[in-house]
Amino acid sequence: MYSRPLKGYGVTTKFIQDDTGKIIDVNVGIDITNAAALKLLVKKPDATEVEWVASEQQADPGVLRYTTVAGDLDQEGAYYLHGFVETAGGALHTGRRASFMVVERYEGP
Known about the structure:
Layout: E1 13-16, E2 23-27, E3 37-43, E4 49-53, E5 55-56, E6 63-67, E7 77-86, E8 92-94, E9 98-103
Parallel strand pairs: 1-9
Antiparallel strand pairs: 2-6, 3-4, 3-7, 5-6, 7-8, 7-9
């Protein structure tokens, strides 16, 4: 099982701090049809751990989809995440770690 943000496992993706409506797709590598729980387990730059409730990406089986809302991308720095699935039978599956960066608006040279 593996996690892959924005269909680019191993690729660092950048988001702008406080942006909303950004789609994060994570391929968990297993059948998630009828799963009891779909989540992204996220560690923010200040080490705060949060859970973002995901949904199944209908066009691509085995992919969790999450769309950011206010407060998700509130810190500048590296975010680390795992896709997490609880199957209908109660089995728990945690994917490999993936990451992305959040940068402040107007950052750069």
